Amino acid sequence: MTGDHIVGVSVPRKEGRDKVTGRAQYVDDLTLPGMLFGATVRSQVPRSKIGKITFGPGIAWDEFIVVTARDIPGKNVIALIANDQPCLADGVVNHPEEPILLLAHSDRHLLPQAVAAVSIEYDQLPALFTVEQSETRSEVIWGSDNIFKSYLVEKGDVDGIWKKADYIVEGEYKTGAQEQLYIENNGMIASFDAQQGMTVWGSLQCPFYVHKALMALCNLTADKVRVVQMETGGAFGGKEEYPSMIAAHAALLAIKCGRPVKIIYDRLEDMAATTKRHPSRTRHRTALSKDGRILGGEIELTIDGGAYVTLSPVVLSRATIHAGGAYYWPNVRITAKAVATNAPPHGAFRGFGAPQSLFALERHMDRIAQVVGLSPVEIRKRNFLQPGQMTTTEQTVREPLDLVRLLDRALELSDYHAKKQRFAKENELGTSRKGIGIAAFLHGAGFTGSGERNLSSVVGVEGCADGTIKVLVSSTEFGQGTKTVLCQIAAETLGLPYENVEIAQADTDQVPNSGPTVASRTVMVVGKLVQSAALGIKQTLMGSGLLGDSYSAEQFRSACRTQVAAHGQFRSWARYEAPADVFWDDDKYRGEAYAAFAWAVYVAEATVDMTTYNVSVDDFLALQEVGKVLHPVLARGQIAGGVAQGIGYTLYEKVIWQNGRMQNGQMTNYIMPTSADLPVVRVFFEEMGNVHGAFGAKGIGELPMDGPAPAIVNAVEDALKVPFDSIPLLPEDVFEALLAKREPQSVGGVR
Amino acid sequence: MRSNPADYQLVAPASLQAVVSLLAAEPGAWLPIAGGTDVMVQYAAGKLPARKLVSIWNLPELRRIEVSPEEIRIGAGCTYTDLREHEVVQSEFSLLARAAAWTGGIANQNRGTLGGNIVNASPAADSLPALLVYDAELILISVRGERRVPYKDFHTGYKKTKLASDELVRAVCLARRFSGYLAYTRKVGARNAQAISKVCIAALGRRASGVVEDVRIALGSVAPVPLRLAETERLVTGKPVEPSLLVSAKRVAIAEIQPIDDIRSTARYRAAVAGNLVAEFLEKIGEN
Ligand SMILES: Cc1cc2nc3c(=O)[nH]c(=O)nc-3n(C[C@H](O)[C@H](O)[C@H](O)COP(=O)(O)OP(=O)(O)OC[C@H]3O[C@@H](n4cnc5c(N)ncnc54)[C@H](O)[C@@H]3O)c2cc1C
User: Fold this and answer.
1) Are residues B26 and B43 in the same domain?
2) How many domains does chain B have?
3) Most buried one in A94, A196, A569, B36, CB count within 10 A?
4) Cβ neighbours of residue B7 closer than 8 Å, sequence gap 6 or more
5) Chain B: nearest CA to A59, how far in angstroms?
6) A747 has a pLDDT exceeding 50
7) Whose CA is nearest to atom 9 of ligand 1?
């Protein structure tokens, strides 16, 4: 065994060299012989019956392949949860970016004009664009009540608490849509052969989601569909479900023309048509005792799912379970629903419902603090969850959690108290106002409830003929470090140098289904399986006497070579088994929601420029407890990047909707912050260890998305003494709020 | 790219003379393309109506900055980087140097030209308020010869200019008489880099014997064209900077502009911020 640890060390990224030297192959780098290019004709109107379709003049239509819903060999659905979203609209459309026709041609430059030359007559039906409109049911656009999914969580006796309350605090909080804005736009190539079946290569997160969708669409058996992930330039959840749609389109064109077909979205199409974070509205009504303890409360949470179910039930589930945050609620009722509107379906995005409900809660805690007359710090300390207490879903906190200590450390690291005093004094003068805000929160790692049990993920580890090790997973790399960390885990388990472990390309023909790469589950859940499968390799070699109790890397490689030479392919498999003490009741929404939670306290310092009403984040401190940190550089990168994305969510990124369409689908007008807008994010970890993850790791990827919005908006309130309850919070909103507060002498009189 | 390259023709004559001859031969048929940072955005979106492009990028006649004792003459083909790096621009025309520094990002500054910013004629263009306060003059060139026109009359309406269909902007001339002024400029965009202005201001002012002796204030993104605030300037000239003056200057400034609601901001916000910027500028003169 080598004495040095690999886990906990910042080894080089597995794919890093190829990325920086330009050798990495993204889907648009791949060209297949005879390949055509595909494009999508979309609805452009929200809710309509489709009338006559005309192929306009000036286009050599006989050179184009045209696919309609009638060309679909199997079911016209993008198979996921409810199977309600068609691959191509047939007769009706339910949102303005709905695919209706597909075109392909060998010259990609001819496609945009051809798409524009297709004209479609519509018989428009009344449409719904907001949660409120959907709730009125003035039109029923989905099912019988416009509700995709609802949950009810009940703990204790909420109805009995109001009369015991010393204070009752109410608030309503809203969050907007957010675009993932990965660097690489979506893209797919499909190739079909009657014998071999369908193969697709693409930019994607979940190879087996695409696999499942193509089986249903093309009416093919599992062995006749192959999905290969190409190097993927960012995803953030945006390549969780929509790639199935693009793969389906490329597949239909490939079947029709008998040649490979590539579809690459440009930024305009990607921004307009693919998924975004669910907009939300959360209402809180909380009962408190005189000393600021939560007696109980009602939380009503609604998310806008867009036109089809897609992943909304799962996003809603996470939003629901996180709605009570890191606090102890003796009594609580959470009613949550995802409603239909005539916008493109909203989907997966880092945080997956938690940023929405945690924004509401952490703003509400500051409101409660004011009403009760306590500081934002004190109100949190009095209500933090403690070991032995139960969460809103009645999951007992079993780890040695100490949130008060975590909060105190964050306050100390950020110099919170001194700054708060200083800002209050300095705000009397000058043309800017400063404030400081906190957010304390949690994020559950892995699939919710019985999710991991149902996934039943499988991981393989192979001992190769040359004595090195290969990790076999469908878990994908899209910048976050999957390849690197899973190789570290295998190397550490086997006592091998990191360089002796490689990871297979995520190709459904070559790797087992280790589940989707989502939900901050990869390191914790898949990593643990990699560890088990690697142990299997070691045990086999030891069992067959090829390896002793202690060994050098060379002895291991030699043993592995011997094993392969004697017995052929040498693989070890591990399948997820739910821990015995984990129970979850899907009907009552009660039990162990997550195998582990990561905990965090974030502190944001913000300045409001009173000349321009711009808010800037000057300092950001992110302290979190995430179990064992397996790769410090990647972990810091996840936190700093997540905070940056959270700052964008809070202060910059606003999707401007008109009749269900995004009006600002360009990077010029959809404002993502640049490095010139971001503070240095100061990242700190506490390591508490965790029995469920490999080497004690918990999930980390989504956590940093949850805290920035409430921490920053709390800081803005601290600066201006004006509450803001919805994000994004733009300078225009700050201006209007100040104007409303100050009885202006003129429009420009608020300074 | 939503345009088909096969639909376009691009020529790159070797001299300025050859370009103006081409423009004269087929007036209106050829669109000059300098850095292409506006033209290529339209091309990528499939929205470039012109089909024939004549490149004027890097023509030596357009890329010079000539300094005489009276004026500086900046070739229309000079890039933002050229402006940022030029010593006289930096020291005597800091409003222009600052505008160049916050236009787009570095790649954009290496390609985008002053001439392009002028002729593209966006009301949000960042360098144009500076040209207004410096009383810039433009030298226009065609086969018919050169003419020198004041920049303040050049923009006639939203994205409209006085440029004839056979003409190019050859150079921008700035008189070297502003070094004694306090210079104030701010860009209010949705982020600190790579942003289109919601409001931008460039202003010069001088105080003598306790009163505002001379001011020049120009704003972008608050009207169909970049605007000089003549009324506001008149109001404050000769007066001491006091709180009541700031209040009335704000009011007059807001009355002078015609901001709109669009995808980037609201008319109300733009008006308020424009007023605040004017007030902030006057405060600075007061402190000076
Ligand atoms: C990413 C990005 C960021 C940007 N940020 C900013 C910003 O912050 N502020 C800002 O003001 N602008 C910005 N722009 C717009 C653009 O960069 C500027 O307007 C630039 O000055 C245009 O110059 P150009 O040489 O690239 O123009 P081109 O695109 O080559 O031409 C623009 C127009 O001017 C005409 N033209 C160019 N030169 C001449 C000439 N000498 N005579 C006659 N006609 C001429 C062309 O025919 C065309 O109509 C940005 C653009 C991009 C792509």
Assistant:
1) yes
2) 3
3) A94
4) B51
5) 13
6) no
7) B103
User: What does each C-alpha distance from A16 to A19, A204, A479, A480, A738 come to in angstroms?
Assistant: 5, 18, 9, 11, 48
**What amino acid occupies position A457?**
S
Q: How confident is the model over A611-621, as pLDDT tens digits?
A: 999 999 999 99
Q: Which pair of tokens denotes residue B140?
A: 């226009």
The size of the A-B interface in CB pairs under 8 A is 100
Ligand 1 pocket, residue B37 CB under 6 Å: yes
Helix (H) or strand (E) holding A426: helix A416-426
Complex-level ipTM: 0.97
For chain A, give every domain's residue range: 16-24+451-575, 31-125+180-273, 280-448+589-741
Indicate which CATH number applies to the domain containing B100.
3.30.465.10
Element (H, E) at B251: helix B243-256
**Cα–Cα distance measured from residue A32 to residue A36, given in angstroms and rounded to the nearest whole number:** 9
Quick one: CATH architecture of A280-448+589-741?
Answer: 2-Layer Sandwich (3.30)
- Number of neighbouring beta carbons within 10 Å of residue A21: 8
Choose among A427, A420, A433: nearest CA to A612.
Answer: A433
pLDDT band at residue A3 under the 50/70/90 scheme: low
What is the pairing mode between strands B145-150 and B52-55? unpaired
- A16-24+451-575 and A31-125+180-273 in the same fold: no
B35 and B96 part of one domain: no
Rounded distance, CA B285 to CA B183, Å?
A: 9
CA B111 – ligand 1 centroid, Å: 9
Q: Is CATH 1.20.82.10 the right assignment for the domain spanning A31-125+180-273?
A: no
The amino acid that residue B220 corresponds to is G
Answer whether residue A506 shows pLDDT above 50: yes
Give the CATH number of the domain where residue B253 resides.
Answer: 3.30.390.50
Domain ranges, residue B211: 182-287
- Which of A613, A674, A750 is closest, CB to CB, to B192? A674
- Asked whether B28 and B52 are in contact (CB, 8 A), the reply is no
* φ and ψ of A195, to 5 deg: -75, -55
pLDDT, one tens digit per residue, over A138-165 is 999 999 999 999 999 999 999 999 999 9
What pTM does this model have? 0.97
Q: For residue range A37-62, what is the model confidence (pLDDT) as tens digits? A: 999 999 999 999 999 999 999 999 99
Residues contacting residue B3 through CB under 8 Å, at least 6 positions apart: A109, A112, B43, B44, B46, B48
- Domain A16-24+451-575 indexed as CATH 1.10.1040.10: no
**Same structural domain for residues B88 and B153?**
yes
DSSP string, B114-131: HHHHHHHT-TT-SSHHHH
d(CA A7, CA A596): 20
- The minimum-distance atom of ligand 1 relative to the CA of B187 is 8
Helices and strands (DSSP H and E) totals, chain B: 11, 14
CB contact under 8 A, A109 and B6: yes
Alpha carbon distance B137, A672 (integer Å): 37
Q: How far apart are CA B34 and CA A139, in angstroms?
A: 53
Q: Is the Cβ atom of B23 under 6 angstroms away from ligand 1? A: no
Structure tokens at A437: 């805000």
**The two structure tokens encoding residue A391:** 């969460």
Q: Are A727 and A653 in contact (CB under 8 A)?
A: no
Cis peptide before A728 (omega within 30 of 0): yes
- Round to whole Å and give the CA distance between B105 and B212: 36
Neighbours of B48 (CB within 10 A): 20
CA R_g for chain A: 27
Is residue B108 in contact with ligand 1, taking CB distance under 6 Å? yes
pLDDT digits (tens, 9 = 90+) for B76-130: 999 999 999 999 999 999 999 999 999 999 999 999 999 999 999 999 999 999 9
Give φ, ψ of A670 to 5 degrees: -95, 110
